[in-house]
Amino acid sequence: MEESQDTSIELALQLQLWEIKSFQASSAATANHTHGGADNQEAADLFRAEIEEQLLGWGFAGTEGDTPPRTPSLPPTPHGCIGCFTALAVEDAFELPCDHHYCRTCLRIAVCLSFEEGIIFPPRCCNQPIPIDDAEDRACVEEFLRLDRIETDILGDFAELDGPELLAKSDEVRVERETLDKTYCSNPTCSAFIPPGDIFRDTAACRKCGDLTCSLCKQASHGGVCPRDEASQQVLGMALTEGWQRCPTCQTLVELNTGCNHMTCRCGQEFCYVCGGAWRGADGQRICQCPHWEERNIVAAQAEDILDREGGDQLILDAWGQLGLDPEVEDQQVNHRCEVRRHQWQFRRRSDECENCHHDMSDFIFECNTCGMIVCKRCRRYQL
């Protein structure tokens, strides 16, 4: 009993020392903003010296030359979720490479959002990928994201897949993003991605609907050698006449009506509408030397609107002058979303749809003061 009481006393005194250290750190941080910083520090030093003297006198602390006194085992410090700002116990927090932490719900939502078309994959925080597919941590991530450990009633559409299924879906998305010559199901009601492993002798079998697609012409499977039929050649001829471009990765035809020459295909490939070449190199830097903007493309749609509104063929000749080309081009160059690198977000208390993930936000939204882009809290944090 006496030994147990001694241990309790030692632990209590060591806890007091720990609290004093925390108080001293807090006092030092606020000393420049208050008038009593020095007095507080002096009082803490005196109190600490008194506690250490008691420990030494009772035989709990070593004398000079001995090893320093052991630190008692203290409860782990709780973490805060960077997504919802909820305080988390250590076992309920997933630590990221940037030292931020996620709760189970926010990590699952971040992962699921990255599966959607046009969203950066893998999900990121502080521009560092979240290691959801790391082989060494896979079992831990699967366990962390198990549905029976999450409040599924607040997950909505993100509660469909369990932990292992969620990471299997992540594997599928990764294969799609990394495949250069992508093949999608030719069935217009399906259009699912067909991985290279499901393509045999240029015939791709869709797991979702079972239809077969030619991996060369991307049309329904036709058997034998791909004919590259005359109709396809006519379409390509019209595309050449009209100045359309083809994605260098999946060969999808793209027509530009308005905006800049920086194109992003549904397959994720960024290319130039002028020359058809890649827009960025392997290091992420722009390599295309073509003009970023074409004045005619920027204001063409507005000129047509003026013509439709007021009528008359002659007005098409005057529409360009009415628009004020130079100011319009300058405004587009400054405010176009692909040119904005530092958004100036403003909190808006209203319901609206996120332009990035297209989810409806019922309570509030963030709007960029520079380009007017409207995004939800998660896309602002994870994607932009």
From TrEMBL:
- The domain of life for this entry's organism is Eukaryota
| CDD domains named among the record's database cross-references | BRcat_RBR, Rcat_RBR_unk
EC number, UniProt record: 2.3.2.31
Q: Which Gene3D superfamilies does the entry mention?
A: 1.20.120.1750
Q: Which UniProt keywords apply?
A: Metal-binding, Repeat, Transferase, Ubl conjugation pathway, Zinc, Zinc-finger
Q: Pfam families in the record, alphabetically?
A: IBR, IBR_1
Instruction: Note the InterPro entries from the entry.
Output: E3_UB_ligase_RBR, IBR_dom, TRIAD_supradom, Znf_RING_CS
Q: Residue limits of the RING-type domain?
A: 77-294
Any idea what this protein is called? RBR-type E3 ubiquitin transferase
What organism, scientifically named, is this protein from? Truncatella angustata
